[in-house]
Amino acid sequence: MTEIKISNLLLERGTFQLQLDALQIQQGEILGVMGKSGSGKTSLLHSIAGFFPIKEGQVSVFGREISRLDPEKRNVALVFQKPWLFEHQTVIENIFFGLKLQGVSKEECIRQAEDWLKKMEIPELRDRKVWELSGGQAQRVSLARALAVGFPLLLLDEPFSALDAPLRKGLRALVRRLVKESGKSAILVSHDWRDIEEAADSVLILDSGRKVAWGSLREIKASTDSRVKAICEE
Amino acid sequence: MNWILSFPAFLILIMGFVAPLMFLFALGLRDFSDSVLRDPFLLYVIQFTYFQALVSSVLSVGFGFFTAWMIKEWRVRGGSWLWKICLLCSSLPAIIVALGILGTWGPGGLGSGILSGTRGVFGWTGIILGHVFLNFAIPLRLIGNALRERDRSAEMTALSLGMSRLAIFGQITLPKIKPSIVCSFILAFLFSSTSLFIVLFLGGGPRFTTLEVSLYEAIKLNLDNSRACQIASVQAIICTSILFLYLRSQKGSFLNEQVHRNGIFRPRTKWIETIGSCLMWSLVVFLIGLPLISILVDGVGVLHFLNLVELSRAALISLGIAFGVGVLSLAILYPLLHAVHHENSSKALKGLSWLVGLPQFFSSLVVALGLSVFYPSIRGNNLQAYLAIVVAQTLFVIPLIQFPLREGFQRYSKEQDLTAQSLGANRWQRFLWVEFPSMKRSLILSALIAAGFSLGEVATVLLFSPAEVQTLSLSIFQAMSRYRFQEAHAMTVILLVVMVLIFGVVGRLEEKDD
Predict the structure, then answer these.
(1) Interface size, chain A vs chain B, as Cβ–Cβ contacts under 8 Å
(2) Residue B261 pLDDT grade (very low, low, confident, very high; cuts 50, 70, 90)
(3) Which of A101, A109, A131, A158 to mutate to test the interface with B (most CBs of B within 10 A)?
(4) Whole-angstrom Cα distance, residue B377 to residue B250?
(5) What is the mean pLDDT of the segment spanning A107-131?
(6) Beta-strand (E) ranges in A36-184?
(7) Closest-CA residue in chain A for B441?
(8) Do residue A80 and residue B440 have CB atoms under 8 angstroms apart?
(9) How far is residue A32's CA from residue A206's CA, in Å, rounded to a whole number?
């Protein structure tokens, strides 16, 4: 069953144009998006999240057309390269922030947030202030916050890029496992092929706002297209 | 939506500042050439005003530069305390400083023997001492920050290539901090030229009359509004010219990101460092500490002379006005800066947020006079008079609280807002649960600065307050004007304690923000 469907998307920002004729993501699938700087990776995520208005096209999540909705009504959680935690809140308060917005009771918020802390392997950070966290810990909290809110689609904008290699490796495996377990779909933008190779199921390659290739990880690996090879081997 | 949020700021700027000032100009320029340009005394006053401002600002920048250098470059012992004390003292109202200097160097004061010439502390000595006390914190802060933030790698390279320290200072260091020196000179010049209470109490006689004192005399003593408007117009024209100079000096004052912090100008032997530290501390105690000590010594012993009922009433009114100023200034500035933060591409909004800083370039008497001639019914009605005091003080507070609020918004990033939005938070939820808690410290800091300024402000209260209304600062002014110095000292002790508490908390909060 196709859960996320993007069709005839056209986004214009100044002289830059992003065009996507069709793109589908299944439930539990992680789509990796790669491309050079300025190819439109982040613009794609931000247009799905609603921060860049699209000129034409549709984006539907579970059959619900969201492309004309306000960002807060789209049920799409976005994680940035930096964690951007709310500094006035503790770790657990950050994690249940989205649940609180949905009117979930305080006890249930705490129970679910504690559950996510365990899943993220950071239960000891529960009551820490966010400025006491290391970069890796903060990014885990940011991911837990986005997963805890329970939205069906997760948008990950280079979430591992500020981390060192060992942390990065552990976190992409963890994110893959948690996305699969929770039955969500995700779009992961990265400029590092290893992130895509280890976390994604399918890959979209963009170049200057156009789709160069889209297929399963195996198909993209086997591609003979020189542009695809250049981007993947970069 | 963002335009609606910026409307209060636009309204107060137009109705509280631009329109009254334009009206004042229109009145003042009516017989300008006959009344002003042919009046030899006024021409002398203009000449004296700007000459004393020049001398005061040169000395303020000199002392401020020296202090900044000793603290940031030499790293004298107790430098961080020295920095805090200097900034705290210069936040005090001019009236307290004038009283402190009179108590120390005036007749019967602790140091009166040193200034035992014909005029004593009155005249040039008092004016310069007062202006340096009040204004040296401007160069201290600006030059001190420029010294701290500059990239020292070029200096270290030059030293390793054999250049002398003096040449390095002249050719590398000085050009880097030059914008901060120019900028602080212009501000010190501006504030020295528009200062009232220092010249009024420490000047002593018509020879030492400045434009601001003439303006005060025309309004309060001679009740001559048309003359006051002419003087105010002269001052406003010169202030506008200084404003343009200031804007030009701002270009290129941004500093590079710091690379090296190790200074090459630190003293090379222990005993030089000790002598430097002693010299620095002695200078600060001599110029700043003694006036404050004199207020405390003279004031604490006569506290029992105070009429507690009147004092409580004055304190309550002062706090009420301070509260009003704090609330109004935040109510006006916060929505505007919120709009600028969320729509940072709008040049018009940015321009407006800059324009609300304009009143600080004009004297409080000029702005208050503008309000009183534009809204003539103010003085006849208590409620309107209070409102005018709050509005006039708010106009001066807004430029001061812009900095902590802007810093608060800088810490609250756009991405945090987008993250909250993507988690399902609507505009109000983002404001209440993310933005407001993130800005809490900046808001408290701004409210305290506003309250501190308002408590020490006299000019607007003097101009608008009905006869039966007394504030703490106005009571001090009136006691000084009637030569009741014991009473003035006692009240100043109380105001001083309150202000030191407020600015002490401000300093702590600023430290946490750093």
Answers:
(1) 64
(2) low
(3) A101
(4) 40
(5) 92
(6) 56-61, 64-65, 76-79, 153-157
(7) A88
(8) no
(9) 11
For B1-24+301-514, CATH number? 1.10.3720.10
Q: Is the ipTM of this complex over 0.90?
A: no
Query: Which one of B345, B422, B427, B440 would you mutate to disrupt binding with A, by most A Cβ within 10 Å of its Cβ?
Result: B422
Token representation of residue A20: 């996507």
Give chain A's domain count. Answer: 2
Query: Chain A: nearest CA to B385, how far in angstroms?
Result: 41
Greatest Cα pair distance, chain B, in angstroms, is: 76
Residue type, B3: W
A76:B438 CB<8 A: no
Quote the domain boundaries for residue A62.
1-75+155-234
Identify the closest residue of chain B to A98 by CA–CA distance.
Answer: B423
A144: nearest CA partner in chain B: B423
Range of weakest confidence among A69-83, A190-204, B215-229, B411-425: B215-229
Using an 8 Å Cβ cutoff, are A3 and A25 in contact?
yes
3-state secondary structure of B377: coil
- Going from N- to C-terminal start, the domains of chain B cover 1-24+301-514, 31-289
Predicted confidence (pLDDT) per residue in B453-472, tens digit: 898 888 888 888 777 778 88
CATH of the domain at A205: 3.40.50.300
Out of 1.10.238.10, 3.40.50.1110, 3.20.20.70, 1.10.3720.10, the CATH code matching B31-289 is 1.10.3720.10
Give the closest of B411, B413, B426 to A72, CB-based. B426
Residue A187 has phi, psi (to 5 degrees) of -115, 120
How far is residue B322's CA from residue B316's CA, in Å, rounded to a whole number?
10
Written as one letter, the residue type at B473 is: S
Same domain, A7 and A66: yes
